[in-house]
Amino acid sequence: MFITTFLLLSTWSPCWGVVLYGPDIHKTQDGNRSHVCGSANPNNNVIDLREPSRPGPLRDLTSKELRKLRTFMENDPNIRATHPAIARMNSSFIHSADILLPPKSEVLRFLDRGGPRPMRRARVLMFRGDKTPPVVEEYVCQPLPNVKSCQLLNLTSQRNPIEFSY
Prior knowledge:
The chain is an alpha+beta fold. It is 14% helix and 27% strand.
């Protein structure tokens, strides 16, 4: 039996629930699994889904950071990322971008001891169909939100770039 915990996000009824997946699970007539979560919010809690103007060191990339990151990579002469609306297999395009977490010691120094705020960085996966042969590259772009540089991620545990398979 598998147990999955989930959080329903709503401005009027946040609640935790547990869904059990196994042979004893009752399904609705149309074959879907159903769960019931309380519709009342006795504590009047509110989950603020707005993006912060100055995100913390562990926060996901904001839409503003993603837009500025994409613009920087489209204008960088070494990367030449293609806008998603016109990207093709033989062009350079962004596959994904995510926060690259700072070292734990920097985060703790900031949170616990009032130290300097760790620099926010992004890890970007690029499909480079414009190169011969085509490759996949990972970049570290910093600082966010106003990106000034994107460098190939340098790890000893994996190759970068790697060959692109169609």
